[in-house]
Amino acid sequence: MAINESVPRVALKKITPDVSGAMGALHAAAVTAAMDAKVEPELLELIRIRASQINGCAFCLDMHTKDARAQGETEQRLYALSAWRETPFYTERERAGLALTEAVTLVHDGQVPDEVYRAAADVFDEQQVAAIIWAATVINAYNRIAIATRMVPGSYQPARNNS
To answer: How far apart are CA 96 and CA 124, in angstroms?
Structure first.
């Protein structure tokens, strides 16, 4: 489906700043929970990218692939992410996190299967599992916002790391 750029879409931040702010606060809380749980930042970006691939969110794919590359992620792993099960490029933890992310993203396809949850629980503690579920939930919400409002990809640039 081609994007019809002549159809105006609502500017959510402008029209509903309180709700947009609450979404930003949810995102910040999810990031803090992941950091506190010591979920690898690289895995969080893979989660965001994989959910965005499934949902077809060009804006979020543009943003999070750029963020992943800025954190040192390899092009090979980014290119192969949609076929992660068929490659040797991902760790056991990443595979469990990606499987859980896919199950959360595709919850309509049979809930979150017990075997997927158990595989995640085998390599992550409860705090980490919770953080991954929140990360997947937040990116799914952002995907829907970006798609519904037709946010245009391409101009996002990662913040410079001054460390």
So the answer is: 9
